[in-house]
Amino acid sequence: MGRNFFVKICVALVLGVLAGFWIGDTAAFHLFDLIGRLFINALTLIVVPLVASSIITGIAKLSKEDSFKEAGTKTLCFFVLTLILALFVGGVFFYLFSPMFASSQILVASQQPVLDGEMGLFARFSELALQFVPSNILAVAASGQMLGLILFTGIFGFFVSKLPKGIGDVQGRFWEGVFLIMMRMTSLVMYVMPLAVFAMMAKVVAQTGLEAVYPVLFFFLSVVSALMVYAFAFLPLLLKVAGISPMQHMRAVLPALATAFSTSSSAATLPITLECMEERAHVPNRLCGFVLPIATTLNLSGSALFALMAAFFIATLSGITLGFFDVAIVVILSLFTGFGMVAGVPSGSLVALVITLKAVGIASDGVVLLMAVERVLDMARTTVNVLSNTCCLALVNRKR
Q1: Which of 58, 91, 209, 373 is most exposed, with the fewest beta carbons within 10 Å of its own?
Q2: CA distances, 299 to each of 51, 87, 113, 315, 336 (Å)
Q3: Contact present, 333 and 359 (Cβ < 8 Å)
Q4: What is the dihedral angle through the alpha carbons of 367, 43, 10, 104, rounded to the nearest 10 degrees?
Q5: What domain range is 59 assigned to?
Q6: Once rounded to an integer, what is the mean pLDDT over residues 267-288?
Q7: Torsion of the alpha carbons at 355, 361, 363 and 364, rounded to the nearest 10
């Protein structure tokens, strides 16, 4: 999915806006609505096997690493710290910008989540805890409650690594095969995305006119502002507290950041990131070779920030007020997005957003509104992901 795919999306958006002005409540409107629903259903269809195979494969591989036991604890602690900071910044900036699009209800709410006042505090926490430990994992997967599935598959993947070598290898290859198949199926779904974007944009414009443009513009500004504050204020503050010069670190990793911005891929940037941290930041090769590959999968703080803000944004445009319980689910799933819930998958953030919206009963149609700014935001959050990874590596090196 390179530049040609981005051009196709842009063309689809423009044509969808033009088509939306004249279709009105005609047969074409209902056809476009059907195409959009089929696309969202196709994305939702692949979610459970994709997430399950991704988590099982990743956890099984990590648990086999001997070095994981030595530096893993500190590394994961810094991952969690940076992800929580990213979610905090994203939440604050959404709150600051929300008055600019809070009055724009341009999407149809599919389900009103439970409001705070309808449940006691203990009841809300009890329901959240029960989602983590369900009684029937197949029923949970069928209903789209991802928290129990994530916990179950994580534990499953850990014990796959503890099986006797022959059986463990068979299990590992099976789940890796499932993951590769799901990646190809995801690529197939993404292949028809331009048509789906055209249809869904035409439907939205037919319903609302250009009213949808302004909230998306403010959303774009809010996400970019949040990413910049997180990258240039909070991450440098962490380095400063640990006794590391933020300016020296930024200069050392600048080539990696430029590569991340241009490629929109943390994995493609990895060789440059390794070189920067070894040659320019003088971090030992052994530590770089352990932390950075794991961070490319498990520390996507920019993606977590985007997922949180995008879910809140679409809920707002749907006229849905999220209660405490639903906010908690959005935060937790955004955290798992940062932990690479769908890492390595084409348009992984889009898939993760669909998962989050489904978990709180919000229609996924609003995802199409973000496609106009998705490419630029992808470049920005990938750059932040790489910067966060290098900061975590520097902190782990400092605390050895």
Answers
A1: 209
A2: 17, 12, 30, 26, 10
A3: yes
A4: -10
A5: 3-398
A6: 84
A7: -10
Q: What is the mean pLDDT of the chain?
A: 80
For residue 369, the one-letter residue type is: L
- Three-state secondary structure of 134-159: CCCHHHHHHHCCHHHHHHHHHHHHHH
* CA nearest neighbour of 366 among 380, 374, 354, 352: 354
Query: DSSP string of 332-366?
Result: HHHHHHHTTTTTTSTTHHHHHHHHHHHHTT--GGG
Enter the tokens of residue 171: 């299990």
Backbone dihedral angles phi then psi of residue 305, each to the nearest 5 degrees: -60, -45
**How many whole angstroms separate alpha carbon 29 and alpha carbon 194?**
17
Question: Residue range 340-352: average pLDDT?
Answer: 66
Q: What is the pLDDT of residue 109?
A: 54
CA 145, CA 92: separation in Å to the nearest integer?
26
Question: What is the token pair recorded at 134?
Answer: 């369900």
Q: Which residues have CB under 8 Å from 79's CB, separation 6+?
A: 295, 298, 299, 339, 392
Give yes or no for residue 115 having a pLDDT over 50: no
Lowest mean pLDDT among 112-126, 192-206, 280-294, 379-393: 112-126
Give the per-residue pLDDT at 186.
Answer: 78
Contact predicate 209/102, CB 8 Å: no
Site of tokens 């290098």: 390
Q: Which two tokens stand for residue 248?
A: 């020296």
How many domains would you assign to the chain?
A: 1
The CATH number for 237's domain is 1.10.3860
Q: Using one digit for the tens of pLDDT, what is the confidence trace for 358-392? A: 878 787 777 877 877 777 788 889 899 999 999 99
Count of other CB atoms within 10 angstroms of residue 184 = 10
Q: Are 392 and 78 in contact (CB under 8 A)?
A: yes
Distance CA 386, CA 277 (A): 11
